[in-house]
Design goal:
29% helix, 21% strand, 4 helices, single chain
Length: 160
Amino acid sequence: MITIHPDQRPLAAEIAPLYAVAPLRRPIHDLARLQQMFDGSNVVVCARQAPGGALVGIVRGWTDGVYDGYVCDLAVHPRVQRQGVGRKLLGAVVEAYPQVQWILLSSPLAQTYYPHLGWQAAPACWVRSRVGWNPGSYEEFAREHAELAKAAAHGGNESR
C-alpha cells in the first residue's frame, strides 16, 4: 500500500537515492545542497510504501498559496510507476492550493507524462541557467548516477 504524506520532509540522504533511480538531475552527491533545496521549499508531499515505509515518491515546489506556484521536482520510484503515485502527489498539491496556477519545467524524459494528467504545455517559458551548471548528456548523467541508482533500486539507502 502506498500512502501520501502532505508536508512531510525527509532528509536529503533519503531523497538522493530516489532521485538517482527516478532519475532526476539534481545534486544528489551534495547532500547539504539537496537538503537546502527542501528546506527552502514550502510545498513538499511524499509517497511511502505503507505508513512509515520506504520513500517511493516526492513532489517539491513553491507557492504564495493564492495565485502562483511552481512544481520543482516530481520523482517516483520505477517499481511503483504507472500506479497513480505521480498523479496522487500532484493532486495533493493542487488540492491544497486550489486557487493557484501551477507551472513546472518538465524533464525531457517526462514530456509525454503531464498532458494525460490535464496539464497543458505553455508556449512561453524563459530560462536563465544556474551559474556553473552544465547538465551534460543523459548518458553522462546515467553513468554518474548508476551506483546510487542501483542501490536505490534494490532498496538500499546508500549515498555519497
